[in-house]
Structures are given as structure tokens and as C-alpha cells.
Amino acid sequence: MDSLNLEEQLAAIKRGVGDVFPEEELVEKLKRSLAEKRPLRVKLGVDPTATDLHLGHMVPLLKLKTFQDLGHQAVLIIGDYTAMLGDPSGRNKARPQLTHDQVMANCRTYEEQAFKILDRSRTEVVFNGSWFSKMHFTDVIALLSRMTLARMLEREDFANRYNNELPIGLHELVYPLMQGYDSAMVRADVEMGGMDQKFNILVGRDIQRELGQEPQVGVCVPILLGTDGVEKMSKSLGNYIAIQDGPSEMYGKTMSIPDELMDMYFELLTEVPGRELEEIRTGLAKGTHHPRNVKRRLAREIVARFHGPEAAKEAEEEFDLVFIKGELPEDMPKLSLGSESIWIVELLRLAGFASSNGEGRRLIQGGGVRIDGQQVADVDLEWIPEDGAVIQVGKRRFIKVALK
RNA sequence: GGAGGGAUUCCCGAGUUGGCCAAAGGGGGCAGACUGUAAAUCUGCUGGCGAUGCCUUCGGAGGUUCGAAUCCUCCUCCCUCCA
């Protein structure tokens, strides 16, 4: 794996990358690394602010994995202290502050999901609390004195907030310094991050320089857009594909992304070689590739990455069955009922398809409810449960009735 | 510390001469048609309740009134300007 030459390494690193700065320094570092047979220390800092990760979180991790596969040393920094502040990058308001306990509680699931991608045995994991918790206020002042307000206000997010008269918490100004300090503490050669991390990574270079270290090189990956194709992928917007989604769910969500997003997803989330991607692009442009089939390939690649090839194949078969052939899925959740009649709206609630009677009513009135393929028109329907009957809501929600 | 502005339903945002307000409009979401579970487009729905009515909602607590998102008092939070 470490036998790759400079050009091959560079190509692998730059695939799907948004920005490398400065690139000449990366080349220098790689050359030296090859000559001295000394792996580069590649840092990625993550703040365990959430418990369930999605594909957007995976993009930098996948790039870190690339470095790892090239024989470099992955350094994963768990930002137990930085998470308490919340990274202001790209934000139009301050993040909620978490307590250290909350952060530590998130850590376990975070790592678990991150190591679906990274090779745990070859990853150095460090908590930044291991140095921040020991700092004195005098140390903090020394750190703060390395930054000026003017520089902070060069940042678009802060500048916007400032100009729009939105609040900027002082603690938020500290964040980039902490992240930069992390780089110095682990003597990073390279720091990975999303495009929104550019400023923070540059601060890291400054701090390293001031502490007499060679500055790190920044490698920024693009921000993954969510399934709506407009906003960045995020849990709060609901446009995400979770790492913990099952194969069918993950496959289906991928199929539902806008076509324009396919290229980005292929590049950032799969290992399909660049040459092949080029062929897919021209095929789509010329109309020789059907977009749907290209997307199926994409969905397969993604599911295979997190659940294995076998699961990907099964997910595809089920998808084809349900949505292309219009048949019922093989595995449906079961709902056990007694044999006495039940009000249809009540049934929808029991099945979890509606959270209130009102919502159930609306689904029926909107024509979205079917029993064994028959549209339900009557809101007051009293239905006598039949064993094996299939209740369907919309195109993708099914449940099978089982009599007690 | 002083002066002023504001808090509305998932979000943004109307509504403040008290009733016609479960509250305009937009966004988002859900469902239907069309399709490739894509996009675009069109249509309907979008507080709760087995429900021609009842209940809860317009930052919080009280009050005025037959009746308050709208008026009064106090409180909380946020923003701006001056220091």
C-alpha cells in the first residue's frame, strides 16, 4: 500500500477534494515521506455533538481513510472540549453548548460509526480535553493573544452575522484557536476537514508556526448536499442518509436523490475509479446510460460500503420488486390485531403511519391509504382484519396484518 | 447604567381601532396525478378530539371585558443604539 509513488498518491488524495492549500507543501511533505519512509500525520478533528452520523460526516472520514490506505498515520481527534463550545463555522447562529457529560455520552456511538470506515488498529485517537483540561487561564490568554478581531471578521460567517446585527458569542471566537492548537499538539502534517473548515485549518498553520513547527497542509473536502439536493446534509433538515439506516432504507434514500447529485455522491462516497466516473458522465450526457441505472449503481456502491455487497444486492432486489415491478416488499413489518373490526383511522395510528387521528384522516382523504391495493375512500370505515392483509400508505410504507 | 424595538402555529412572516382568528401569505412536509421512488409541473391537506360541536395554541403570570394574539400590570428572554 505504501509502494505507491508520488503521482499515484497525489491522485488518490486529490480525488473529490475541494481544496488543498498549499499544494506545493503537500508535494514536499509527500516526497520527504517517501524518501524517509516516514508516514505523514494526518489529523481529522470531530466534535461528538450528535449521536447518529450520516453520509455527510463520512466524507472527511473517507478521505482520511484514503490517507490511511496510503500508509499514513491517521490521527482522529475527539473534540470533547471543542464540542462544548460548538464550531461556529458556516453558522448563522451559535450552536447549543453541550456539557462534558453529554459529549462523552456521544463519543461511543460516534466512534463505533466512524470505525466502520477507518481501520481502528491503525488510528491514533486523542481527546483534546487531554490538553485543554490542563490549561491555566494564563495559557488561555496567551493563546487568545494570537488572534485579532479583524482577522476573525474576515470570515464570511462571522462577517454576515456582524453585518446583520446577529449575536456572536465571545466563546465562538475561541473555537478556531482551539482547533489550531490541536494541530500543534499532535504535530499534524495534514489536516482534513470540510470546506467550511478552511479558516480553522489556516489558524492551525499560524499556531504551529508560532510554536516552531512546520505548518500543516489543509485538505478540504466539499460539503455533501443532502437528499433534497439543495441544503447541506444535516439531521435537523431531515435530508440525510444515516449510517445506521438499514440496507433497504439506505438504498431507497439514495435512489431518491436528484440526478444532479449523483456525480457528487459517486465522487465523495464511492471508490469507483475516476476513469469510470468519466465514462458515466459522458454516457449520461449522450443518453447512452439511463440515469436510473446509474443511480442504482450508486446506491449499490454506497450500501455495499456500509453493509457489505450481499446486503446491497438484496436491497436492490427488493427495491426493484417494489418500485419497478410495483409488487410488495418481501419483508414487511407485522402488525398483530384481534379479529374484531377496527376503525381505519385507529388502524393507521396503531401501524405508526399517523401520529394523530387527524393525520390519519388526511391521509385517507388525500387518497394515500390502501388495503390490499384497494384505495380506502371512507374515513369512517370499520375494517374487519384479515390475516395477511397489507396496509399501504403512500408509495413506500407497508405493514402486514397478522391475526392474534 | 440610559433610550428604543421585539417574542405568533414546524420555519419565515401577516395580524395589535378587542369579536368575522385555529389565525393571511410563503417555505418546508405529507398525499394524489405525471414519472425513472429524480427534477420540473399541477391538485389537495398541513393544532387535538370517533367531531355539524368541543378542547388547547399567538413568550410567562395575573387583570379589564359578555368576549383578548389584539387593551392594562408585572415577569422572562432577545435585539439595536448611546455609554
Features:
alpha/beta, 5-stranded mixed beta sheet, single chain, Rossmann fold, 47% helix, 6-stranded mixed beta sheet, RNA-binding, 18 helices, Structural Genomics Hypothetical 15.5 Kd Protein In mrcA-pckA Intergenic Region, Chain A, 404 residues, Tyrosyl-Transfer RNA Synthetase
CATH H-tier superfamily of the largest domain = HUPs
- Global mean pLDDT: 89
Please state the structural category. Answer: alpha/beta
* CATH architecture verdict of the largest domain: 3-Layer(aba) Sandwich
Bulk shape? globular
Strand order of the largest sheet: 1-6-5-2-3-4
Helix content: 40-55%
Estimate what percentage of residues fall within beta strands: 5-15%
Determine the N-to-C terminus distance: 58 Å
**Biggest pleated-sheet summary:** 6 strands, mixed
Give your account of this protein's structure.
- The protein is of the alpha/beta class.
- The chain is 47% helix and 13% strand.
- The protein has helices at residues 6-14, 23-36, 55-69, 82-85, 100-114, 129-132, 137-144, 149-152, 156-163, 170-185, 198-210, 247-255, 262-269, 274-286, 291-307, 309-324, 344-350, 357-365; strands at residues 19-21, 41-46, 73-78, 123-127, 190-194, 217-221, 334-337, 342-343, 369-371, 374-375, 382-383, 390-393, 397-403.
- The strands form 3 sheets. Strands 1-6-5-2-3-4 form a 6-stranded mixed beta sheet, with helices on both faces.
- The protein is globular, with a radius of gyration of 25 Å.
- The N and C termini lie far apart (58 Å).
- The structure holds one RNA strand of 83 nucleotides.
